[in-house]
């Protein structure tokens, strides 16, 4: 299990974490700031929460920029990265954490739009800012990463398929990223205790979390998993560009 990054180890670096006003994204931003990185907090509709986090992170002596942006809106994303360029001039770490698809009242294609198209759009828009030696981290779940070989709960399947589609689309860009000296890592985790997704799954399928916990032996909590995501931004890149967090014994290989 990863420990927090050493203080000062990211001094002079700039990191943007999508969907970072709460949950895994917020804790990832917190770990990066503790290590000395200037941080961009991205949110869609949780401005007060994002500003509160920013106030906390500035106590580490780092610069923090709060930018609201809907990742499914290209103009919104373009303006976000324009703000990053004006404020910092560059980007060293891009953590693609924001995802969704289980929310009620969304269009039928929302999961694919957010979990595939928006991820690719964010990367492509950020690319001119990504410095040599930079790192892109895509956050996903085992239920999505292994969806081709291991079925998941019906309630989660559309999200899992869309997140795997997003992972595949991003992986296709690894050669181009390598040419620019930018690394890419997929961080895949088992169900995470305390996340919105876990709550929604439990609501749709009572007992799902306890059942998975029993099968896996233990589940990571939000803070523990966020530490792994932050570590993926600096650790050596695995040969298959994949960092698996938590039990994988119930999942068949790809």
Can you walk me through this structure?
- The chain is an alpha/beta fold.
- The protein is 43% helix and 17% strand.
- Strands 3-2-1-4-5-6-7 form a 7-stranded parallel beta sheet, sandwiched between helices.
- Helix 1 (23-34) crosses helix 10.
- The longest helix has 17 residues, at 110-126.
Question: What's the gist of this structure?
Answer:
With 254 residues, this protein is of the alpha/beta class. It has helices at residues 23-34, 47-58, 74-88, 110-126, 142-145, 157-171, 174-179, 196-204, 208-216, 222-232, and strands at residues 14-17, 38-43, 64-68, 91-96, 130-141, 183-189, 242-245. Helix 1 runs parallel beside helix 2, helix 3 packs parallel to helix 4 (110-126) and helix 4 (110-126) packs parallel to helix 6.
